Each structure stands twice: as C-alpha cells, then as structure tokens.
Amino acid sequence: MDQKTDADGRTRRRFRLHDLLHDYAVRVAGEPKLLHQKLLDAYAKKCPDGWPTGPNDGYFIPRIFFHAESADSLDVLEDMICDFKLISRLVAGEGYVTSVFFKERLEKFVSDHRHPKPKIQNILKNIDCFTTCLRMLEHTAYDPKALCKECGQHSIVHGTIDSGSGEYYDNCIVLCTNCYWSWFWAGPDYMGDSEPKFDYSTNTY
Asked: pLDDT for 54-76, tens place per residue?
C-alpha cells in the first residue's frame, strides 16, 4: 500500500497486489460479472431515492459506472449517464470529466448495436463539447427563461468566462440538463462576431 497527498490536502491511498495473488483471488471469487452485479445491487440499496443519492464513501463516485459496465447492465449504465444529478456529482467529486470517460462507457452501446436514448445520442454528436460544458458547470447558472430548441424544455444552464486577454474573447458554455444538448464557444465576442446561438426574441437556444 502507498499513499500521496494532493495539492488540496486530500490523501489518496492505493493498494498493489502481486500478479499471482490476483490470479488466485479471481479464481476463488468466481465469475467477475456476477461480482460486479452483486456490488451494484448492494449499492442500489444504499440509494434511497435513485443513484444520485448514493453514499459519499470515496468509492461510489465514479466507480459505480465501471461496475455497471462490467456487469453488462447496460440499461442501468444508460440510466446513470442520463441522470444529470448523478453526472453533476461525478463532476463535483472528481473535479473533471474527460471525453475518454464517456467514450469508453458509450462504446458499450455502439458495439451492442443498441438504440440509445436521445440523451446518449446528443452526447455522441460531440463528446468533447459535452464534457467541456460539464467541466465548466461551476461557471454556469440555471436560466428559467431560456428554452432548449431540441427538447422544448426550460432546462438550460449557461455562462460566459472572460479569458482576460484584454480583448472581446469569451468562453461560452450552454448545456441542456434535460436532453444533454450542448454548445461551447471559445473565440472573439461570441455574441458579436460568431454565429449567434441565442434568439433573444424567443429566449431560445
């Protein structure tokens, strides 16, 4: 076992197991897929009001996604990814979400020739854009007046970050928490020189 302390003061511990001990443990434990499902079932009992209410035990987030994937519980995995409250916990707990994380999860749906939910399809359109918006959630705010043209719901969070370059150079983040439509722009004066994404007359993105 070894451990290290991050810059923010959090201590992270890691266990290392010899290959022979690992192989023995796997043989004794039995079918890995069933073990992942058992852990999934055990955690489900600790979520009184759905997956977003899971315990803050240092393991649940983000590893619960991995266990759902490893158990081949694709319906559960899809529900997890489509739950914005759970995804928000992932962002808050880890501080970042990479495109690779979603690509690895979503490959399951593509390889299985499934017909994913519209939210998953919106992520697949531009995973990099979606994850960029997620990483910048702390710079956004819910706008009850803004309407998403994709799903017709007032479920938009958006925000603008000034790059501080001294010019009109902004980072604009827009994300629909209902259907996962997302848009990110990093460039000069996004409301001026670039193609507008917001219709002020209808309050629609």
From this structure: 998 888 988 899 899 899 888 89
Q: Tokens in use for 42?
A: 């055990």
Distance CA 28, CA 194 (A): 60
Q: Which among 151, 143, 146 is positioned nearest to 202, based on CA atoms?
A: 146
The pair of structure tokens assigned to 121 is: 């399809």
Q: How far apart are CA 15 and CA 163, in angstroms?
A: 41
- Those residues with Cβ within 8 angstroms of residue 81's Cβ, 6 or more apart along the chain or in another chain: 65, 87, 102, 105, 106, 119, 120, 123
- Residue 62: asked if its preceding bond is cis (omega within 30°), the reply is yes
Instruction: Work out the average pLDDT over 6-18.
Output: 71
Cα–Cα distance for residue pair 88/177, rounded to 1 Å: 10
- Find, among 160, 173, 168, 205, the residue nearest to 187 by Cα: 168
